[in-house]
Design goal:
Layout lengths: L13 E4 L6 E2 L11 E2 L3 H10 L7 E6 L4 H10 L1 E3 L2 E2 H4 L2 E4 L4 H12 L6 E5 L2 H7 L5 E4 L6 H9 L11
Parallel strand pairs: 1-4, 1-8, 4-7, 8-9
Antiparallel strand pairs: 2-3, 5-6
Length: about 170
């Protein structure tokens, strides 16, 4: 993926992703028999975040509220991003359990030592953003998965001003 954001752009220290309907679909809680696949441009974006020189000082995390956390953890181990990389390989921190997102972020803050204002969060549910933005996290609304154009916009607008959710 070609990086087109300004050189003066501040890069988040922690990129946090919800899983269901943001990274993959359909939701694991409701689709026990349907195949799960990547949405939009997420594979390319995650590989770039993992390997790209511009992101060498950043970490990636998962914040997923799920009633089937073991199934989510299994999918992270199974889903290939490339020939030599599975989804789990790109995430340094994984929080998957049925709680409000602020609990996930407090756990991530404690584990990483990264301030909330240095985090960016991608999720398809606006109610999660309403909770997380109060912590000072930059939030990006991904109603249909994350596209390169929205990812670019999120970097250009990081950190978000006054708790504004990037759409």
């Amino acid at each position: 993926m070609k990086e087109n954001f300004p050189e003066t752009c501040q890069i988040p220290k922690l990129f946090v992703f919800d899983l269901d309907d943001t990274v993959w679909g359909p939701e694991l809680d409701f689709s026990m028999k349907k195949p799960v696949g990547y949405l939009k441009d997420i594979q390319e974006i995650l590989i770039e975040l993992h390997k790209g020189e511009s992101f060498k000082n950043s970490k990636l995390a998962v914040a997923s509220s799920s009633g089937v956390p073991k199934r989510g953890q299994k999918k992270l181990k199974e889903m290939n991003l490339s020939d030599y990389l599975v989804l789990e390989d790109v995430f340094s921190f994984i929080e998957i359990y049925r709680k409000d997102k602020d609990r996930h972020f407090h756990a991530l803050n404690e584990k990483t030592g990264i301030d909330f204002c240095d985090m960016i969060f991608y999720d398809n549910q606006m109610n999660n953003h309403e909770i997380v933005k109060k912590l000072g996290v930059t939030c990006v609304f991904t109603p249909d998965g994350l596209e390169k154009k929205l990812f670019q916009k999120s970097l250009e607008n990081f950190p978000s001003k006054d708790g504004k959710i990037i759409v």
